[in-house]
Automatic annotation (TrEMBL):
InterPro entries: PsdUridine_s_RsuA/RluB/E/F_cat (IPR042092), PsdUridine_synth_cat_dom_sf (IPR020103), PsdUridine_synth_RsuA/RluA (IPR006145), RsuA_PseudoU_synthase (IPR050343), S4_RNA-bd (IPR002942), S4_RNA-bd_sf (IPR036986), TruA/RsuA/RluB/E/F_N (IPR020094). Keywords: Isomerase. It holds the Pfam family S4. Belongs to the pseudouridine synthase RsuA family. The keyword Metal-binding does not apply. One of its GO terms (biological process) is enzyme-directed rRNA pseudouridine synthesis. Gene3D superfamilies: Alpha-L RNA-binding motif, Pseudouridine synthase I, catalytic domain, N-terminal subdomain, RNA-binding S4 domain. Coiled coil: none annotated. Residues 1-47 are annotated as: Disordered. This is Pseudouridylate synthase. GO terms for molecular function: RNA binding; rRNA pseudouridine synthase activity.
């Protein structure tokens, strides 16, 4: 018998009634179906699950590994305990049932130079402060408040919406100190009025401190104020018939310009972020 005939006989032996027999399993011998994990993500933009959890602010990346191993984290409804598992930013990731936001919170302090806008880019395409911090983050960082184009000094950027909202609240008690240059010498009687409080738009504006700058002309003053009302410093002096021709914010909520040249930026330290978050 040839090899070909032998192979044909083997094939024929597996037939019955002209069709192949279906493979069957005795009871108890069928394959065990396992709960399938979500398909591992191969997207180049995917990130490790522990980093996703850490970026959300829940815990450190090392602690995230512990929580993942314990089954505290789900991806699209399925608990994941695999170390190194990757997810996309569009996946639904929950920690103990709470939906997480994977965007890492970032905080950047800029010493704003003159002639840069802090509002949405104007029609003439003037220079905007966002261009000065373009290399600071891949996330979109927005200034917490505004400085006029001709103003200079400290400007805080973040993608932390909760903190930004809190700092902009009119009752937050956020300390700000400005170095001002007026269009004329400030009279002592007007300095006293400012110390007592000046009414602007039917609301009393009180300052924590105001004083002349040592060794400078009387038209240069330093003022400490906690109000978050828009352009409140300029409007305060307008009430007393002065024009602020230069404004430089030198302290913002405990942050200073130390070692931060004009036009440069830096990241906030962990402690500085904690201090800002303690402001109610």
């Amino acid at each position: 018998m040839s090899r070909g005939d032998s192979n044909n006989d083997k094939k024929a032996s597996g037939r019955q009634g002209g069709t192949f027999r279906k493979k069957s399993y005795a009871r108890g011998n069928a394959p065990v179906k396992k709960n399938a994990l979500p398909k591992q993500n191969s997207d180049p933009d995917s990130i490790r699950l522990n980093k996703y959890v850490s970026n959300s602010g829940v815990c450190s990346r090392r602690d995230a590994d512990i929580y993942i191993a314990a089954g505290n984290v789900t991806v699209n409804g399925t608990p994941i305990t695999e170390m190194g598992y990757k997810v996309k930013l569009t996946d639904e990731v929950k920690f103990d049932g709470r939906l997480l936001n994977p965007v890492k919170k970032e905080y950047v302090l800029l010493n704003k130079p003159k002639d840069f806008s802090t509002t949405i880019r104007d029609e003439k395409g003037k220079r905007h402060v966002s261009g000065l911090i373009s290399n600071a983050s891949k996330s979109k960082l927005l200034p917490v408040d505004k400085l006029d184009k001709e103003d200079t000094g400290l400007l805080l950027f973040t993608n932390d919406g909760d903190l930004s909202k809190r700092l902009k609240s009119p009752i937050n008690g956020l300390r700000k100190i400005y170095h001002l240059v007026l269009d004329k010498d400030l009279r002592s009687v007007d300095l006293a009025k400012i110390q007592e409080g000046v009414v602007v738009d039917e609301k009393l504006v009180k300052v924590q401190d105001i004083s002349f700058i040592d060794g400078a002309p009387k038209r240069e003053v330093g003022i400490e104020i906690y109000s978050s009302r828009g352009k409140i410093v300029q409007r305060l002096f307008e009430q007393l018939d002065y024009t602020v021709i230069k404004l430089d914010r030198v302290i913002y909520g405990g942050l200073t310009k130390k070692d931060l040249p004009r036009g440069h930026w830096r990241y906030l330290t962990d402690q500085e972020v904690i201090n800002l978050k303690m402001i109610k």
